[in-house]
Write a structure and sequence with these properties.
Blueprint: H1 2-21, E1 27-30, H2 37-51, E2 60-63, H3 70-78, E3 86-91, H4 92-99, E4 111-127, H5 135-144, E5 150-153, H6 160-171, E6 181-184, H7 188-196, E7 202-206, H8 207-216, E8 219-224, E9 249-257, H9 262-277, H10 279-288, E10 295-296, H11 298-317
Parallel strand pairs: 1-2, 1-3, 5-6, 5-7
Antiparallel strand pairs: 3-9, 4-7, 4-8, 4-9, 4-10
Helix pairs in contact: 4-11
């Protein structure tokens, strides 16, 4: 019996030693199905973190779709509030939904926004066999019969993807924007599927979500919503040069649980800054149509606070919220 007890104690001690020295694996939650922008953020940043030695083990990617990112946000804000190894993909869509109370009472201050390292240009896309050859063609069709054109996007109704065609139509002088049809789905990949399949006439999303479909020839991009044409995609015209003064880019970044320590927060900020400076990330941006956009740590959190406040004002102006 004595040997058995000693053996058990020895095993317990060994497990304790292993637990204290083992390197815990970081996890990145992508709040949508595989293939969309948040999935891209997790997989690219996670891969590069490991390649450059910023983390000791590969980053686990978990797809947690639902409610336009609300399911993942609620999980982190209520169940994993102090997990120091958890990061979550975020974007302009995230802050837009929080500003509009789309997450059922959850607010931006329930997590900490740790950084953004790229801006994803907004796009307006149609299927390869669409009759619309330009953004002007699409706009004129909507003016003539608003119900004839439906947009699919990876955000909920009133979200960032929804706002893009609304901004375009306002720039075109169309004032009754409540008549514009929009279908919100879980992520850009699902929005592309809706459009390629003919269920919607156009897709509103981000460049990184549609690169593969552009290269395969399944879609045509009518406009990119940037100030200038995107390097690597110079054949795609901007909305501005087609007469519609709209710029809408979607930053790509991360948030972390609210109750991690300042030291742990700064560790993730430092890691993200290293990714931004890496050759691997620069290559990923070029291949996926991203523009440089680096804000990390406390500066990014302060910037996000301002964006949320501004979005509340804009959303009230267009009638999305009261």
């Amino acid at each position: 019996m004595k040997k058995t007890i000693l053996k058990a104690l020895g095993t317990s001690a060994l497990i304790g030693i292993m637990s204290s020295t083992a390197v815990s694996a970081a996890e990145c939650i992508a709040p949508a199905n595989p293939g969309g922008g948040w999935d891209f953020t997790c997989r690219q940043i996670g891969r590069i973190l490991y390649e450059i030695g910023a983390v000791d083990t590969p980053v686990q990617v978990t797809n947690l779709a639902g409610a336009g990112g609300g399911v993942a946000f609620a999980n982190v804000a209520t169940e994993r509030t102090d997990d120091p190894e958890l990061i979550v993909a975020a974007s302009s869509a995230t802050t837009t939904r929080l500003a509009q109370n789309a997450f059922a009472g959850m607010t931006a201050d329930m997590v900490r926004f740790v950084g953004a390292i790229g801006a994803d240009p907004g796009v307006i896309v149609v299927a390869k066999d669409s009759p619309f050859q330009s953004l002007g063609d699409l706009v004129e069709a909507i003016k003539a019969d608003p119900g004839s054109v439906a947009f699919a996007g990876g955000s909920a109704v009133g979200g960032f993807d929804h706002m893009k065609p609304l901004q375009v139509m306002k720039a075109a002088g169309f004032t009754d924007i409540t008549k514009i049809k929009y279908i919100g789905v879980d992520g850009g990949a699902d929005a592309i599927t809706q459009t390629v399949g003919g269920f919607t006439q156009a897709m509103t999303g981000d460049m990184s979500e549609i690169v593969g479909f552009v290269k395969s020839g399944d879609v045509r991009v009518l406009a990119v919503l940037t100030e200038e044409r995107v390097p690597g995609f110079e054949d795609i015209p901007t909305a501005r040069e087609q007469g519609f003064d709209v710029v809408a880019v979607n930053w790509r970044g991360l948030y972390v649980p609210k109750n991690i320590s300042d030291e742990q927060f700064n560790v993730w900020a430092d890691r993200l800054a290293k990714v931004a400076a890496s050759d691997q990330w620069k290559q990923a941006m070029t291949e996926n149509g991203l523009a440089p956009f680096t804000k990390v740590g406390g500066d990014f959190q302060s910037w996000v606070d301002g964006v949320v406040a501004d979005t509340v004002v804009l959303s009230k102006e267009i009638g999305v919220i009261q």
